[in-house]
Amino acid sequence: MRRTMVFAKRNLIEVYRDPLSWIFCIAFPIVMLIIMSIVNSAIPKEAGNTLFRIDNLAGGIAIFGQMFVMLFTAIAVAKDRNGAFLTRLYSSPMKSGNFVWGYIFPMLLTAVIQACISLAAAVVISLITDYSLNIAGLLLAVVAVIPSALMFSAIGFLFGTFFNEKAAPGICSIVISLGAMVGGIWFDVEGVGGFMYKLGRCLPFLYATKLARSAISMDFGVREFLIPLGVVVLAAGVLTALASIVFDSRMHADQR
Amino acid sequence: MGYAIKTENLIKRYKDKTAVDGLNLSVKEGELIALLGVNGAGKTTTVKMLTCLTKPSGGKAEIMGIDISKDPDGVKRLVGVSPQDTSVAENLTVKENLEFMADIYLPGGKADEAVARAIEAFGLAEFENKKAKLLSGGYKRKLSIAMAIIGEPKVLFLDEPTLGLDVLARRQLWHEIEALKKDMTIVLTTHYMEEAQALADRIVIMNEGCVMAVGTLAELENMTGKKGLEDVFVSIAERME
What we know:
Chain A is mainly α. Helices cover 81% and strands 0% of the residues of chain A. Chain B has a six-stranded mixed beta sheet with strand order 6-7-8-3-9-10, with helices on both faces. Chain B is globular and about 50 Å long. The A-B interface holds A 2-3, 6-7, 9-10, 13-14, 17-18, 83-85, 87-94, 254-256 and B 51-55, 73, 76-77, 79, 81-92, 96, 100-101, 103-105, 131, 147-148, 151.
């Protein structure tokens, strides 16, 4: 545990000292929140479009922000694997579990802090736009996004383990675009239906968005909250286990 | 005094290439040996096997009496490695890099002392709060070696520690390596003749995965009838052809 925390601290410092992390993980989601709120204010009420209303937007943006944490996890792992730094650590008494959780813990923390900042920004916007947000729902959302934070950290870890420093960001960008589309962040996937909705139901992103939005609106229905919660927790568990197995086998393969 | 490193017919094969072919080597505790050879001679592969970074394909090796194949975790607690490429955490300061490595190897109280000692020994005080990525090549190498010794290893492996450094930086690093000799056994890989000549108690000349000659400089000179390591090396290399 000591070695895991030591490695996690190093990774946390590395991420927090990279200005790009601040831009993509914190600034970008907030900017999107502001822009989409402006877009929402321009939509006539008669259109009946509630997707960009701050209560819906806040949950979507919290999940969108976590996708960038996935990107940074992938870059951090791929970069270390590419250089000699991991070689040095492989010759130390660190075990593969120390590496896996040492990468995932700080990213999980980053994702949760990012969700808090996005939700706090949503409160500010709600006050400006005179829309009443449920504060208890927002606090619940901070907890509800933890499984998806783990899920995205694990996906990033997996990509960083599989791909090199050049390929990993590209692959993550594809997942971010796909996840934002089929995850129902920018439009109503259920309303669109067809292949898009079918694909969305097969992937965990839509459930993550739904879970965050349901938590904010304190809607604890089976379809709206419990099923998405189950799917996201299951996906987070499976992907974390898979990431651990893959990293362990890569670590041993490197030593062959 | 016992042996810090002992290998018997150590072999490493990669598909159709034999990188190390039957290495037999004994290194006494407190000795500094230089593995000398051209690129592809098997120096780095030997270091990788002895530090449990790669598994041998055959043969046996022990570090301080511990078998590298049977107890790699035991070996990892006893060795320090400074890899060929500079391996530091770029966004961490010099002090944070040292604290990081110290915390991996040592319990709390001892770690702080070890960091202070390493900063002093390698003259890093002036840069302790500077990010590693902002250091010059020479200071990055110093930091890399300081990180390798911070866990108080019994055996230190320095893989081409002065590669790419200018003459002054190289000389400065030699002094620091020289100072480490009293505390630990050191295995140094290099293809700089003058480096091996200046630092090593014994020199191991390798070629195509095999040991061609082992001995002190005087022994190698006697063996070949040549003066100076460069002429000794050329003589051995010509004999191989």
